[in-house]
Amino acid sequence: MQLGKRPVWQTTLIYIGLILVCLFFLMPLLWILRTSLITKAEAYQIPPNFNVALTLENYIEVISDNGFGRYYLNSAIVALISTVLSVVLGAMSSYWLSRQPGNMTGAKLAILATQMIPPIVLVIPINTMIRSVGLNDTWMALVLAYLTFNLPYVIWMLLGFYDNVSKELDEASAIDGCSSLQTFFKVIFPLIAPGMMATAVYSFLVSWNEFVFALVLSGNATRTIPVAIAALETQNGVKIAELCASTILAILPIVLLSSFIKKYLVNGLTFGSIK
Amino acid sequence: MATVTLKGIKKIYPLSDDDKKKGKKGLFKKHEEEIEHEEKVNLQITDQGTVAVQEFNLDIADKEFIVLVGPSGCGKSTTLRMIAGLETISEGELYIDGQLVNNKPPKDRDIAMVFQNYALYPHMSVYDNLAFALKIRKTPKDIIDKKVRDAAEILGITEYLHRKPKALSGGQRQRVAIGRAIVREPQVFLMDEPLSNLDAKLRNQMRAEIIKLRQRIDTTFIYVTHDQTEAMTLGDRIVIMKDGFIQQIGTPYEVFHHPANLFVAGFIGTPQMNFFKTELAEENGQYYVPLFGVKFPMDAAHMEQIKEKGIKPQEITMGIRPEDVSICYEGGVEATVDVCEMMGSSLHIHTTIEDKEIVVIAQSKELPEDKQLGFAHGDKIRLHFDGHVLHLFGLDEKNLF
Ligand SMILES: Nc1ncnc2c1ncn2[C@@H]1O[C@H](COP(=O)(O)OP(=O)(O)OP(=O)(O)O)[C@@H](O)[C@H]1O
Ligand SMILES: [Mg+2]
Fold first, then answer.
1. Interface of A with B (CB under 8 A)
2. B184 and A274 in contact by Cβ < 8 A?
3. Nearest by CB: A177 against B14, B133, B166
4. Which ligand 1 atom sits nearest the alpha carbon of residue B76?
5. Using a 6 Å cutoff on CB, does residue B80 contact ligand 1?
């Protein structure tokens, strides 16, 4: 194929195609954005009226009346703690696992198996355990619950990265005078960091968006955003405008996070070591 | 700068999970299969696992250059890794500088190692790669800087100090790997096939540089290779291994001119030594080797040894190096040329005598002018060799002398 010699009409067609695809995915989001920015009365209007004034009243209401700040904090704390814990613990377990002499098929299979169980199956048993140790309605309950799927995920993902780092590097650094900890932090960690970043982002997203566990395990004090949004579907119908405003608020940090983290994600993909 | 002593070293790799699942029965079956295919590595498999190295006894003198050589899978790397502390020693004792180090971790053995795949730290610049070991040991910065620059100077990599390993060629990476070992000024320098990833020309060049390096940094070297040229040119002494056992320890001269057994005789030297099954016979007190209808008498020196050791006439394998066979114009044995390889200054002539192959090296300038470019297939030539160049091996494959 000749490079850079595509006729203009072809380029135009390609762009039109791309725009259509983007619109297809963006339409619902744009609609939510619109709905969040108009008055409640307008929001229920069918057919919709396009010539409306924009207002922030839904956002103000959601944040001040519904205690959204509180839910935000809950979500952030739970997602952050469970991500940090699972990445730190997972990074070490995974490193150990990848450096074992055998191929550890049993252990690896067990880790994969945890990902095969539908989370909803675990909700009731975990709920029972959490209550029996008196952790209900605490952040800790959610953090522990999220660890059950985040930790195996991190271990599994990082295994691939560790296997890419030649064991000769561990050996070279041992001969250079490092203890195991020094080897891990000075040699292996820097090489794994992009992979860890990518894995951490994913764990954070999953925890931030998690709904089923949060619904069962959180109480008034620890309610997270997904549960709070769901609560806007009341007996008196769906509070559509508030729902849209809170959805936008829930998405916002993730959008900001991903634009900040983009370069790490790309690094995570182009990662490689010197052979 | 230290002596290294290996006493009865043995390494058993535990069986892997897969092997265990197959059960002992399967293992023995596998073992038998391996015996059938003789070219396969023939390691001992016991209840405890695979025996990779055994009965390894070696005294390495201070500042000696020892080369471990042998075919793939014979246990060279395993031995080196046990010395480095990267592999546990199953049995035996390892002393470095007179100290028992069996249970010391690598960092306390004061050794440096160059790996086959370089094992450079990809996230560090060349400078940091070289400095890493010194930083870990909390050496003052100015000393580190001096040592790193000195090593870079020796190896000619000063201009790459700020590059990452990724941006270097294979030869340059190899230099960095060696540099990383040099800056440490270790007691023992270990190298595991450091040149095997380089192309032929670069390998020759680096080999010469290792010889030069050795004169400069004068320390104990243990070098692993499967390349006999490297072994012969680098080693003060060569340790030839096969299937986990030492076959012979000796200077390059000794292993070439007096191989301890058939394996060493065949392994050292290219083209390979020619072997013939024949016998050692006696007639009126004079010993000779009959071959192709000719009696090759033993020379006086050999006769003396035969008397001394009381060697009896017996079936033997006779070996003769291609360079010890000469082409003659009268007498000798008639041979038919199969293939003739022009190697530049010499010719490798593959011939047959009575269905037996024999390879001959001839210096082309010593041949008649019309033959200097080689012989044609089917040409007849006459071959001759003296009794004093013959290597005789008994039925146990050991050298008779
Ligand atoms: N981790 C291991 N587990 C089980 N067996 C092993 C292990 N490492 C090596 N071996 C076996 O021990 C034997 C010796 O291996 P080693 O690596 O020392 O050979 P080598 O002489 O270095 O060969 P090469 O020239 O191919 O590098 C081989 O047969 C190998 O299969
Ligand atoms: Mg090896």
1. 101-103, 105, 166, 168-169, 171-179, 182, 186-187, 190-191, 272-275
2. no
3. B133
4. 21
5. no
B73 lines ligand 1 (CB under 6 A): yes
Q: From atom 11 of ligand 1, which residue's Cα is the shortest distance away?
A: B52
How far CA A11 is from CA of A6, A20, A173, B105, B329, in Å, comes to 7, 14, 52, 63, 82
Over residues A37-81, the pLDDT tens digits come to: 888 777 777 777 777 778 888 888 888 876 788 888 999 999 999
- Placement of tokens 């011939």 in the chain: B351
Please check whether residue A257 is in contact with residue A247, taking contact to mean a CB–CB distance below 8 angstroms.
Answer: no
Nearest-CA residue for atom 30 of ligand 1: B73
Cis preceding linkage at A47, omega within 30: yes
Q: Is B105 on the interface with A (CB under 8 A)?
A: yes
**Best residue in B80, B81, B132, B176 for a mutation probing chain A (most A CBs within 10 Å):** B132
**CA B297 to each of CA A12, B281, B390, B401: distance values in angstroms, whole numbers, following the listed order:** 93, 9, 10, 16
Span B234-262, average pLDDT = 95
In chain A, which segments carry CATH 1.10.3720.10?
A: 67-269
Higher pLDDT, B291 or B23: B291
Is B123 in Cβ contact with A176 (below 8 Å)?
Answer: no
Give the single-character DSSP code of B198: S
> Which sign does the torsion angle of CA B138, B143, B145, B146 carry?
negative
- Per DSSP bridges, beta strands B314-320 and B391-393 are antiparallel
The pocket of ion ligand 2, defined by CB under 5 A, consists of B 77
Looking at the complex, report in whole angstroms how far the Cα of residue B107 sits from the nearest Cα belonging to chain A.
Answer: 4
CA distance B9 to B339: 45
Q: For residue B20, what is the nearest residue in chain A, using CA coordinates?
A: A102
According to DSSP, the β-strands at B44-45 and A233-234 are unpaired
User: Is B281 in the A-facing interface, judged by CB distances under 8 Å?
Assistant: no
- Contact between B305 and B401 under an 8 Å Cβ cutoff? The reply is yes
Question: Domains in chain B and their CATH numbers?
Answer: 4-110+186-266 (3.40.50.300), 273-321+388-401 (2.40.50.100), 326-384 (2.40.50.140)
pLDDT per residue over B75-96, tens digit each? 999 999 999 999 999 999 999 9
Of the residues B16, B50, B226, which should be mutated to test ligand 1's pocket, given the most ligand atoms within 8 Å of the CB?
B50
Distances (CA, A) of B287 to A84, A151, A208, B311: 84, 79, 92, 10
Q: Which CATH code of 3.90.226.10, 3.40.50.1000, 1.10.3720.10, 1.10.287.1490 fits the domain covering A67-269?
A: 1.10.3720.10
Biggest distance spanned by C-alpha atoms of chain A: 74
- Gap from CA of B329 to ligand 2 centroid (Å): 47
Do the Cβ atoms of B121 and A166 come within 8 Å?
A: no
- How far is it, in rounded angstroms, from Cα B253 to Cα B238? 10
Q: A190-248 pLDDT, tens per residue?
A: 998 888 888 898 899 899 999 999 998 888 888 898 998 888 877 777 778 888 888 89
Ligand nearest to the CA of B241: 1
Max avg pLDDT among A199-203, B349-353, B366-370: B349-353
Integer Cα distance of A5 and A11 in angstroms: 10
The interface predicted TM-score (ipTM) is 0.83
* pTM of the model as a whole: 0.82
Question: What's the distance, CA B316 to chain centroid?
Answer: 25
Q: Which long-range contacts (CB under 8 A, 24 or more apart) does B132-138 make?
A: B132/A173, B132/A176, B132/A186, B132/B180, B133/A176, B133/A177, B133/B180, B133/B183, B133/B184, B134/B183, B134/B184, B136/A176, B136/A177, B136/A178, B136/A182, B136/A186, B137/A177
